[in-house]
Design goal:
230 residues, mainly alpha, Arc Repressor Mutant, subunit A, Four Helix Bundle (Hemerythrin (Met), subunit A)
Length: 230
Amino acid sequence: MPLSHPRRSALSEQVIAELRNQITSGEWPVGSRIPTEPELVEQLGVARNTVREAVRALAHNGLLDIRQGSGTYVVATSELAGVMHRRFAEADPRHIAELRSTLESAAAKLAAERRTEKDLKQLDALLLRREQTWESGEAEAFVAADATFHLAVVSASHNEVMTAMYADLGEVLRDWLRADVGEVLTPETHMDHTRLVDAIRTGDAEAAAAEAASYPFLCRPARLSPPSGG
């Protein structure tokens, strides 16, 4: 339905909020191209200038990337995620891997102590999806499935602050994983996460923490990709 028409400044904020909601809800996932300006004008029932102002505001905040001749793409799910993506675009991949290992080890330990039956069912389902995408040989699909699985491990810690921080680092970590596994999946880059889920299931906090911290990484020399893309 078209949005209501209050004064210009309030309408602009309303459009920004509506577009942000499309991103945070997952309706427009990271990496996707959002509807064109004319399509947004029609959907929202507002002027072209208002849509353009809202898109530029979200691009300035790091959620969207305006690519001339290609369209506008989602690059982060929150302002903080956008800031982190830009801040760490040139970070040493080994440092990103160490940060991931530290966060996931702490989260896995808490998950083993706090996980619910619902958490375990989700981990089982996501672990299966991760293996299926690996077998498909599609690197980008595997990156997405692996990232979703690890976020679920962190979520199972039931530490809202840790989960939010990990989610905001999501695209940084996905960039690192893309560089680590490469464009073609090879046997040496495969890591079995069955023991991690088993440790969480049995409530073995120390084993879960050790397992999460033990995954090797290749750290190819390539840096993380910049958020602007192409």
